Each structure stands twice: as structure tokens, then as C-alpha cells.
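One record is kept unedited as follows:
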Amino acid sequence: MTSAATAQDGRHWHAVHTCSRHEKMVAGLLSERSLDCFLPLRRVLSQWVDRKKWVEEPLFPGYLFVRIGEMEISSVWETRGVAALVGPEPGKPSVVPDAEVENIRRLLASEASLDPYPYLELGRLVRITRGPLRGIVGTLVRKSRRCLLVVSVRLLGRSVAAEIPADAVQALQRDAEYM
């Protein structure tokens, strides 16, 4: 969704903090209320004593995103399992930029191997210039011999890393090129 579309209909992305391990339930309840909800999930191989199984777990444990207008805030608050709308004070949720939500969506759709990553303060931002992730903006870091693109959701203080070819990025001059 573009920023222009969001401004026209008065709806913005907001981060919802859920009760522990209630992300999927809350996403289902919000969807039942016809609210635009996005719960980023990743597949992981889970090990039990007697077996291994692929499961989907939240990319950002305890959080999901909802695109709502001011009149729908109370509907989110009334949803079972919602602990808070993330913001500076109760009843005043902060807006998550469309670009940050879209970056997470595109990373998930690319089927790149994703790992939660410690949140990075603003550093050198890069934009991917080729391949299926072209246009995504994040911070370029190295982990051992791998080159990782770290994409952050600033409001949550959370990040996710995807392995990428080092020659597929272009440095941005300033943060304004991203927003």
C-alpha cells in the first residue's frame, strides 16, 4: 500500500503488542472484525524429544501489525489477547511507516532465509539493486562470511536479517532517500 493511499483513507499501520504467545489468535480475531492485519511468520524446524516438525512462528514475537483509522482503535483495544497498541502513551498509537511493513512483506514473499536480528541503530542504509528483493532498504552487515541485509521496524525496536549477495546493494546518501 502506498503512502498516498494511506493518507487518502485515513488508515495507517500500527504495531500491536499481544499477550505472550497470542499473536496468531489476535490476528484471527482482528481479521474476523474485518481489520487489515499482518502477522509476519517464518518457518522453523522445531525439535522435540521424539520428533522434528516444521512450524510457523512469529518473526517478531509478541507483535503484529494492523492498518486502521482513528475510529477503529477501540476495536483493536477490545480484542482479546491485545496488550497494547505501541506508542508514546495509551490511546495514542505510533504509525509504522508503510515502507517498513512493505519491506517485511517482500522479505517473507522472497522465501529468503530469515533470522531475527538484534535491532541496529541507524547506520549506513543500503538499497538492494537487483534480484527478487530489488528496492528493499536496510542496513548491510557481515556475520562470519555471510553478507546480511538487516531490515528494521524502528517503532518495535526489532530487526530481521536476510542473506544477500554483497554486490547487489547501493549505499544511500541519507535516511531521507528511504522515507
Remarks:
- The domain at 98-177 is CATH 2.30.30 (SH3 type barrels.).
- The mean pLDDT is 86.
- DSSP finds four helices and 13 strands in the chain.
- The chain has two domains: 3-96, 98-177.
